[in-house]
């Protein structure tokens, strides 16, 4: 029996096909049938849409895939918090649905940054075994939620920084450069995310923090006690804010521009570069250049997360851009080489 021919025949007749359809038609095991689906995917004859029991396959024609993905405007993932990569999760969401299709470039950039920052916070700081992410697009806006069931952001700040109550923790958070791990993070992820959102809502413990940039106001409300943290990010599809402009406003202009290349002088910004958030801020808006030169003059060390974000994650998404560096001491060079080996 030609299983691949059967799959393609079913697909031609019904426009989509599930593994269960072929299992039922043949009587073979799911594991056996899956082999032929994988082969057809590798041959770029079919494409997978969705995950788990909602997964199905369609013709791997660009127009067909795009049309099908446009109909999938909400997605939910329940993630085991073990060896998670926020960038990989974002890439998978983009692959599985049409939320990011047809959005303006400034909105895509903002969503990329905000989602990875909020998910990274949950991965690294919540101590939650499970994380739930939800994203949806409607006629007016795009929203996402990151939910964990760990210690909770306000409780974490209180414990790590010796604060008396949740209100002090919220006040500390709003200062913009606070963190529970000062040797590893600058705490700027939430700060910059709050500046590019239309609304950012953080629920944790017995408080709800609402940062509403449409009203240019901040609200704090009492809620029924919850475990962990729920972050909700909202932005209009026609929002005019620009990620790089927000970075410049609060961090200053650190770049020397030319037509084809840009030099990033890190020593003008800070002498400690550790977090992914810092890397994302440094690289924001640089995708229009052919060459990026990062100057590590006076930088004694960089963190693994910073190097990985620049020289592996960002580079893998911008393969046509040459990232160079200069004035790197042996400690910085070690981290750069380590990140590049993972490519």
Report what the structure shows:
This protein is of the alpha+beta class and 343 residues long. It has 3 domains: 3-64, Winged helix-like DNA-binding domain superfamily/Winged helix DNA-binding domain (Arc Repressor Mutant, subunit A, Orthogonal Bundle); 74-236, Histidine kinase-like ATPase, C-terminal domain (Heat Shock Protein 90, 2-Layer Sandwich); 253-341, Transcription Regulator spoIIAA (2-Layer Sandwich), CATH 3.30.750.24. It is built from 13 helices and 11 strands. The strands form 3 sheets. A 5-stranded antiparallel sheet has the order 3-4-5-7-6. Helix 7 (153-161) crosses helix 8. The longest helix is centred in the middle third of the chain and has 21 residues, at 105-125. The radius of gyration is 23 Å and the shape is globular. Mean pLDDT is 88; it is low at 177-186.
Please give a handful of descriptors for the protein shown.
343 residues; alpha+beta; Arc Repressor Mutant, subunit A; Heat Shock Protein 90; Transcription Regulator spoIIAA; 3 domains; five-stranded antiparallel beta sheet; globular
């Amino acid at each position: 029996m030609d299983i691949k021919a059967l799959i393609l025949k079913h697909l031609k007749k019904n426009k989509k096909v599930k593994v269960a359809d072929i299992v039922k038609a043949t009587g073979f095991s799911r594991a056996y049938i899956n082999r032929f689906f994988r082969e057809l995917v590798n041959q770029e004859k079919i494409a997978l849409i969705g995950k788990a029991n909602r997964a199905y396959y369609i013709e791997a024609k660009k127009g067909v895939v795009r049309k099908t993905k446009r109909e999938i405007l909400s997605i939910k993932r329940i993630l085991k918090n073990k060896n998670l990569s926020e960038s990989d999760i974002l890439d998978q969401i983009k692959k599985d649905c049409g939320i990011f299709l047809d959005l303006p470039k400034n909105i895509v950039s903002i969503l990329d940054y905000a989602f990875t920052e909020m998910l990274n916070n949950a991965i690294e700081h919540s101590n939650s075994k499970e994380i739930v992410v939800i994203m949806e697009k409607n006629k007016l806006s795009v929203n996402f939620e990151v939910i964990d069931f760990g210690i909770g952001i306000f409780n974490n700040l209180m414990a790590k920084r010796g604060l008396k109550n949740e209100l002090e923790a919220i006040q500390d958070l709003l200062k913009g450069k606070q963190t529970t791990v000062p040797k590893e993070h600058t705490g700027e992820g939430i700060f910059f995310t709050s500046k590019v959102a239309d609304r950012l809502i953080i629920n944790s413990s017995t408080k709800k923090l609402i940062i509403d940039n449409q009203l240019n106001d901040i609200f704090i409300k009492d809620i029924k006690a919850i475990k962990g943290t729920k972050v909700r990010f909202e932005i209009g599809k026609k929002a005019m804010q620009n990620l790089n402009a927000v970075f410049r406003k609060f961090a200053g202009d650190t770049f020397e521009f030319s037509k084809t290349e840009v030099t990033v002088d890190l020593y003008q910004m800070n002498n400690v570069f550790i977090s992914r958030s810092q890397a994302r801020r440094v690289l924001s808006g640089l995708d229009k250049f052919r060459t990026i030169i990062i100057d590590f003059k006076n930088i004694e060390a960089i963190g693994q997360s910073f190097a990985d974000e620049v020289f592996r994650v960002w580079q893998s998404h911008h393969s046509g851009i040459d990232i160079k560096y200069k004035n790197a001491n042996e400690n910085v060079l070690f981290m750069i080489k380590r990140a590049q080996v993972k490519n």
